[in-house]
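Quick one before lunch.
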Amino acid sequence: MVTATVLDGKATAAEIKDELRIRVKALAERGITPGLGTVLVGADPGSQAYVNGKHRDCAEVGIASIRRELPADATPQQVDDVLAELNADPACHGYIVQLPLPAHLDTQRVLELIDPAKDADGLHPVNLGRLVLGYDGPLPCTPRGIVELLRRHDVALRGATVAVVGRGNTVGRPLGLLLTRRSENATVTLCHTGTLDLASHTRAADIVIVAAGVPGLLTADMINPGAVVVDVGITRVIGPDGKGRYTGDVDPEVAETAGALVPMPGGVGPMTRAMLLTNVVERAERG
Ligand SMILES: Nc1nc2c(c(=O)[nH]1)N[C@@H](CN(C=O)c1ccc(C(=O)N[C@@H](CCC(=O)O)C(=O)O)cc1)CN2
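Model of the LMY7XDAE complex:
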C-alpha cells in the first residue's frame, strides 16, 4: 500500500513547461527563438525515444529543434564536425550529445568539444567546475530537476541530512555539490560502491536520493520512517513475460515507510527534460 505522498514529477514538469511557454513568447517579442540541438550517434531505441521526447517538449514550448544524427560507426572526426557546426550555429542556443555513445567513441573527449556556453546538459568540465566554485552556469539537468521538484513541493533542504547513493558525474556527484550550495544548505553524505554499511547512512538521513542504477537497491528497512525518498534509477530489465521494462533503484515497499516518494516513472525523468528546456531558455534570455 502506498502511504507516502507521491511527489509528481510529471505534473511539476508540466507546470514548468507552462512557465517556459510564457518566457519563450517574451523572447519572440525580442525577435529571439531559442533553439535546442541534439546529437544522436547510433540507433539505440531507448536513446532514439529520449531524443524524440526532447524534440516533442521543444515543440510544446516553442523552442526550435535542431537534430543531428550519425551512424553507430561514426568516426571521431564525423562527431567533431557535427559539434563544430553546432558550436558555430547562432540558431542553436544549447545542445546535448545523447548518452551513452557507442563504445568506440571517447565520451569525455566528445563532451569537452561542446562550447561550454552551449552546454545544455551542464556536463562540460568547465560548467562542472563552475558548479564546484559556486559560479553561475548551466546546471546538470537531473540534479537541477531533483532540487527543483523538492523545492516546489516544500521539502526543506536547509539543515536536512541527505544521503545521495551514487557518485556518477551526471547525477550523484553534481547533486552533492548542488545540495551543499549556500542557497540549499543541506548536509550531504555521498555514498558509493565503496561505502561500508550503506543502510547506516540511509537510515540516518531525512532525504535519501538513489542514483545507483541497481534495481531495488533501497529497501524499506534501510530508511528512517517518514523520510523523503527520490528514485533516480532507470534500468531496463527483461520481465518474466520476456518483455523489456524500466525499473527504479527503490523497492516498491519503500512507499509504505517513506513520508514522501519521488517515483520512477513519473518523477525525476520528466523533471530532467524540463530542466533541459530551462537551460536553453535561460541561455537565449542571456543573449
Ligand atoms: N545527454 C544526456 N544523455 C542522457 C541523459 C541526459 O540527461 N543527457 N539522461 C538519460 C536519458 N534521458 C535523457 O536523455 C532520460 C531518461 C528517462 C526519462 C524519463 O522521463 N523517463 C520516464 C520513464 C521511462 C519512459 O517512460 O521512457 C520517467 O522517469 O517517468 C527522461 C530522460 C541517459 N542519457
